[in-house]
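Record type: monomer structure entry
Structure origin: computed from sequence
Chain ID: A
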Amino acid sequence: MTAADSTKTLNMVIGAMIVSFWVFKREPNPFIDKWGGLIFSLCKTYLVCGLIWLGMVGSNQEILRQGAGQSLSTFFFDNVSFGLYKKFYDGVIIKIAPNEPINEELLKLLKEGIA
């Protein structure tokens, strides 16, 4: 990464921060503010719980893996966790560490349908 790329990236981040502060500081309607925050919070919680579940499935501890595979959470978090992991790997990890291989064990678990 060259100095010009770093400067361009920094400018984009600062610009995004300024725009987000400007957009999120406005409260056009209390109803939208209240329910929009609730929906955003539920989506964020769903993704975080899915990543915690993925960590349990991918752990080396057999009891965690069995517990995650036999729980009702498997039905809710199965697709989102692996999809989020794959997109994060393709979008972030490849750009930061191009030689880092994807975790084949997690992809194998997806194909097998969680032990």
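Annotation 1: The chain has a mean pLDDT of 75.
Annotation 2: Residues 75 and 94 are 29 Å apart (CA to CA).
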